[in-house]
Amino acid sequence: MDIPRPIEPEDIPPLLALNNEHAQALSWQEPAQFDALLSTAFHTRTIGPLGAPAALLVAFDETAAYDNPNFRWLKAHFSTFVYIDRVVVAASAGGRGYARALYDDLRAASKTRLVCEINVHPPNPGSVAFHTKMGFREVGRAELDNGKTVAYFECTL
């Protein structure tokens, strides 16, 4: 199985495309916005060949200057955390354990709880099932200005 690795410059265009293929769940990114996201994150990893990655994880710790409603909710409720902002695996790489490998890699780099949000409306039952299996539990909900309802999940290490 492929293992998580740092993101290289050649990976950024295909990772941006992968992100934007899943914009409903992740949020659309323009190139400069995506570069800023990656450069300010606590932890970024990918899996797959250089220039043709198949998965992405981006996480921020509580010290980040990240203007995001989900991050703000989590910061108001936890003093220390690592926020999984986005994780995505290409459809062609599904079922290979890439999401689990990315999470295991993040756990090894973290010393505190992992947190994330999952869409409840529109629903994302696959993500809820995955996170529950990985040891996450729901700790709250919020309705966002964009009409989405999200559930917040935590996994203590």
Automatic annotation (TrEMBL):
Transferase recorded as keyword: yes
Origin superkingdom: Eukaryota
InterPro entries named in the record: Acyl_CoA_acyltransferase, Bact_Acetyltransf, GNAT_dom, UCP028520
Tagged with keyword Oxidoreductase: no
Gene Ontology MF terms in the entry: acyltransferase activity, transferring groups other than amino-acyl groups
N-acetyltransferase domain sequence ranges: 2-157
Alphabetical keyword list: Acyltransferase, Transferase
Region forming the signal peptide: none
CDD domains assigned: NAT_SF
PROSITE patterns (alphabetical): GNAT
Record-linked PANTHER family: AMINOALKYLPHOSPHONATE N-ACETYLTRANSFERASE-RELATED, AMINOALKYLPHOSPHONATE N-ACETYLTRANSFERASE-RELATED-RELATED
Record-given protein name: N-acetyltransferase domain-containing protein
Organism: Cutaneotrichosporon cavernicola
Lineage: Eukaryota, Fungi, Dikarya, Basidiomycota, Agaricomycotina
